[in-house]
DNA sequence: CGGGTTACTGAACGATCGTTCGTTCAGATC
DNA sequence: GATCTGAACGAACGATCGTTCAGTAACCCG
């Protein structure tokens, strides 16, 4: 039913027997944000798991897959994580943390105009999803493979970020700077356009990271009927 | 990193031991479009598989899970499908078919004004995702679990639907009816807001299906700077 | 009434799953 | 130099995976 109406990356290319599975992401190499996890074997495990979980899914990845890619025995992973579940939980937690930090950081250098605040949030939202597409996909798709206990830390962070967005929207509407057809659906729309970035955007393509963020800011302002010069019409 | 900035449905509720897995969808019951598959055991299998694949994922669902829910032996499924893969492939194909049919049907009763055409497409896109959320999720998330061969029929349909959207956008821009910051990103945005519907929308909530579609049409027109009355400003 | 097709059972197959265990070994500490 | 610690190995655990297969009951068509 869906057809996201975006390209899909099924490897129907020249490659071998062609009975390969599709790859979920356009970006090749999975990158974990530099300072989010200290160097060492634990970080290597998380990086490899990020690559696998993003492309094959949590249930589609075996501990032996990870071990082979790490050039380790499967049992060696258990010196660093108590279970496969905990590896995913840590990725999901780190992902939420990185995202929430980006949103908070974007707001601190900004005046208290709701329009400027929305621009900052949308820009950060887009940049994070475009810069760390694997992490974004794992956080958004694979969190459902976690038990409630293991997902809880991430969900707590998520609730805060949601509150941040809704607060700005609320205030913008109250001040008459925004005009939305429906609050919940519009908030979902602002979120959605960022969340889907990993599935189509290629940083090496025509659109630079900055330009992508600019486009998303523009589209968001249009959805809110918000105009940046405080007096009148037109961007 | 992501935080879709929408609610998540992790069952942290009262339930038992609480070490349950999260459920991906807000809607409880999985519905397969009535006329898309004839009645019989084959349809029952697809319906149960739709429920499981949407909530637990393809790799998170075993053939025994399906058999138990169907009150059958695992081996009985192989009288109807040659493999577990083929069950998913059929769901993905049907889903794409339903979506593409909805898009095509939406266009036939409409004049050749790009604005009216975009409204029809966006409305159909939203309605299909809101009406059949399980199918939408399986098509968009689990297609990556298929081999290139099995995904091919669905991908062919997807390419057509993409062409439909891009064609209307292209023509609208050429005629000066649309003004977009970036064609690829805007097309992706139009698609994204529909694709994310299953993750937050509840048909039983405040927003009716029709109202949801109206909101999406409005948001889309804003993103395109398209105004419905052919002469001037304002919706 | 008899022969064939279809849908299903129940048992079993080899493979792979996540995880545990006893052991080894390098490097830090005393 | 003795002791301890942490990381990693290699083998193995029971469980579960997708799938196969012989057998059976029910049905259709002649």
3D structure, described in words:
Two copies of one chain form a homodimer. Chain A has a domain at 85-224: Tetracycline Repressor, domain 2 (Orthogonal Bundle). Chain A has 235 residues and is mostly helical. The radius of gyration of chain A is 20 Å and the shape is elongated. Residues 7-18 and 231-235 of chain A have low confidence and may be disordered. Chain A contains eight helices and no strands. The two termini of chain A are 36 Å apart. In chain A, 56% of the residues lie in helices and 0% in strands. Chain A has helices at residues 41-56, 63-70, 84-108, 114-131, 133-141, 148-174, 183-195, 209-224. In chain A, helix 1 (41-56) crosses helix 5, helix 3 packs antiparallel against helix 4 (114-131) and helix 3 crosses helix 5. Chain A binds a DNA duplex (30 and 30 nucleotides) through loops.
Show the helix and strand layout.
2 copies of one chain form a homodimer.
Chain A: H1 41-56, H2 63-70, H3 84-108, H4 114-131, H5 133-141, H6 148-174, H7 183-195, H8 209-224
The first copy, chain A, binds a DNA duplex (30 and 30 nucleotides) through residues 41, 62-64, 72-76, 78-80, 83-84.
Kindly state the number of beta strands of chain A. Answer: 0
Outline of chain A: elongated
Instruction: Report the oligomer.
Output: homodimer
Please bin the fraction of helical residues of chain A.
55-70%
How much of the sequence of chain A is in beta strands?
under 5%
What is the element string of chain A, with H for helices and E for strands? HHHHHHHH
Main interface pair? Answer: A-B, 85 and 85 residues
Number of helices of chain A: 8
What is the structural class of chain A?
A: mainly alpha
The CATH superfamily of the domain at 85-224 in chain A bears the name Tetracycline Repressor, domain 2
The name of the CATH topology of the domain at 85-224 in chain A is Tetracycline Repressor, domain 2
Gap between N and C termini of chain A, in Å? 36 Å
Largest sheet of chain A, in brief, is:
none
CATH class of the domain at 85-224 in chain A, please? Mainly Alpha
- The value of Rg of chain A in angstroms is 20 Å
Unreliable stretches covering 5 or more consecutive residues of chain A: 7-18, 231-235
Q: Examine the secondary-structure arrangement and name the CATH architecture of the domain at 85-224 in chain A.
A: Orthogonal Bundle
Average of the residue pLDDT scores of chain A: 89
């Amino acid at each position: 039913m869906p057809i996201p109406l975006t390209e899909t990356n099924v490897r129907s290319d020249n490659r071998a027997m062609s009975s390969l599975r599709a790859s979920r992401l356009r970006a090749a190499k999975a990158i974990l944000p530099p300072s989010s996890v200290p160097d060492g074997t634990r970080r290597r495990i998380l990086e490899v798991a990020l690559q696998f979980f993003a492309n094959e899914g949590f249930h589609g990845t075996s501990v032996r897959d990870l071990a082979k890619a790490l050039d380790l025995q499967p049992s060696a992973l258990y010196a660093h994580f108590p279970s496969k579940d905990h590896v995913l939980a840590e990725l999901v937690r780190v992902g939420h943390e990185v995202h929430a930090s980006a949103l908070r950081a974007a707001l601190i250098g900004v005046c208290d105009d709701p329009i400027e605040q929305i621009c900052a949030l949308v820009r950060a939202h887009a940049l994070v999803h475009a810069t760390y597409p694997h992490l974004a996909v794992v956080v958004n798709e694979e969190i459902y493979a976690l038990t409630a206990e293991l997902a809880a830390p991430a969900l707590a962070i998520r609730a805060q970020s949601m509150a941040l967005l809704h607060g700005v929207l609320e205030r913008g509407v109250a001040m008459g700077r925004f005009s939305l057809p429906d609050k919940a659906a519009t908030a979902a729309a602002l979120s959605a356009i960022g969340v889907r970035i990993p599935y189509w955007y290629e940083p090496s393509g025509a659109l630079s990271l900055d330009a992508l963020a600019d486009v998303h800011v523009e589209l968001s302002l249009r959805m809110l009927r918000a105009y940046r010069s405080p007096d009148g019409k037109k961007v």
